[in-house]
Structures are given as structure tokens and as C-alpha cells.
Write a structure and sequence with these properties.
The protein has helices at residues 2-18, 210-221; strands at 28-41, 44-57, 62-71, 74-83, 88-93, 98-103, 119-126, 130-140, 144-153, 159-168, 175-188. With 225 residues, the chain is mainly beta. The protein has a single domain, classed as outer membrane lipoprotein receptor (LolB), chain A (Clam). A hairpin with a 3-residue loop joins strand 7 and strand 8. The protein starts with a helix and ends with a helix.
């Protein structure tokens, strides 16, 4: 019995060790996601929902997330455009017609591959016989600390879902957060230039109100962009 257990354990460990970390094959693509975030700070608890249309361009090293935020009964339409070569980030509030240009947070990059420090958890089968691999990793940045579980398709390494449990200090104070997102409707693109055009009001607008800006940033930074 003991020998059988040791053999089974060896097979399981070997299987985990042989699972290769994948990279997204597409150079340019678009996807849609829906997510919900629960957060706690001090005596205040809240829930934020969002829908996102996102674009990734690995050739130009750019990403875009067009987000509809649902916060305390209010709806806000936001967009984040990140240029990783220029180290710049545009945060755009379509509701208030305001935007802000700022340097990207330290260490920001357009993540194409499963991180080296990720640990393989399991492989499951989704409807349609789609194989999906689950990975776990620790997130430790100047503004975010916690555990991330990432699920990607085995064939193309496309993100199927993300969960985050931890805290963020991007608003200037520590906020405990639980985040979950699902991704769908992937589409390969041949040209992304239309998605990175700034609205005309960005040229002369003032900065977004920090509370709105930081809420958008917290929600748009945890996913695969």
C-alpha cells in the first residue's frame, strides 16, 4: 500500500513538473471580459462590477481596455491605453470627458507568457472539450500583493479566467480586495491602430478625479493586461 502511494505521488509530481508554461500565439487580438471585485478598507465594504473590451498588440507592445464600471449604482465609462515601449498610460473618463497621461507603474509589461514563478495546479475540460490549465502565482508589486489564479486554454494559452485575493495601495491607502474575471469572444486582429486613438478632449483636459481614476486602475491592472 505504501509503495502504491509513493508511486502515485511520484506520477502526480512528475506530471506537474512536465506541464510546460505557455505563451500566447497571436500577435494581436481582442477579447471581452466580465468581472466583479469586492473590497474592504477601514469600516467600508464595497462591490464593483465591470465589463471590458480589451485589445493586446504584442508587436507594438500596447494594450487597451475599454471598461464599463458599475460602482454603487453609478455607471462610468473608462478606457486605459498602455504603451509599454514609451512607458506611458492614458486613463480616459468618457463620462466626465477627462483624461490623464502618466508613467506606467514600475515593472509594468504586457504579459504574453505564464510567469516563470507560476505553479501548475490542474487541467480541466470546459464545454466543447476545451482543455484549460490552471496556474497559481504570487503577485508582489509596489501597489499590489496577493495570490493570483490564472486559467488558460491549453491549445492557444488564451486567458479563460483570473482571480486575485490580496490587497492594493494604488489609491494611497491599503484596500483588501477579492477579484474574479472571465474572458471570452477572442478575435485575432490584423490591425490595432483604430483602438489606440485618443479622443479629442484628451489634448487639453485636466486630470481625472483621483477616486474615479484609482478605482478604474485597480480593476484594469489585475487581469492579463
Amino acid at each position: 500500500m505504501m509503495r502504491s502511494c509513493i508511486i502515485f505521488l511520484c506520477l502526480a509530481v512528475c506530471s506537474l513538473a512536465q506541464q510546460e508554461k505557455c505563451c500566447v500565439k497571436q500577435e494581436m487580438f481582442a477579447a471581452t471580459s466580465g468581472s466583479v471585485t469586492g473590497y474592504h478598507t477601514g469600516d467600508y465594504n464595497g462591490v464593483v462590477g465591470n465589463n471590458v473590451f480589451a485589445v493586446a498588440d504584442f508587436i507594438q507592445s500596447k494594450s487597451m481596455a475599454n471598461t464599463t464600471l458599475y460602482v454603487e449604482g453609478n455607471t462610468t465609462y473608462m478606457m486605459a491605453i498602455n504603451d509599454y515601449k514609451q512607458n506611458t498610460e492614458w486613463t480616459i473618463d468618457f463620462t466626465a470627458k477627462k483624461c490623464e497621461k502618466a508613467p506606467l507603474p514600475e515593472g509594468s509589461k504586457l504579459q504574453r507568457c505564464i510567469p516563470d514563478d507560476a505553479t501548475f495546479l490542474e487541467q480541466v475540460t470546459y464545454p466543447g472539450n476545451v482543455l484549460v490549465n490552471f496556474w497559481n502565482m504570487e503577485l508582489n508589486t509596489p501597489t499590489q500583493k496577493g495570490q493570483v489564479t490564472l486559467s488558460v486554454t491549453a491549445e492557444d494559452c488564451l486567458t479563460a479566467g483570473v482571480t486575485f485575493v490580496g490587497s492594493t495601495t494604488s489609491s494611497g491607502q491599503e484596500v483588501d480586495a477579492l477579484y474574479a474575471a472571465g474572458y471570452y469572444n477572442y478575435k485575432t486582429l490584423s490591425d490595432t491602430s483604430p483602438y489606440f486613438k485618443l479622443p479629442s478632449f484628451c489634448d487639453s483636459s485636466k486630470a481625472i478625479h483621483p477616486k474615479v481614476k484609482d478605482a478604474a486602475r485597480r480593476l484594469m491592472k489585475i487581469g492579463f493586461f
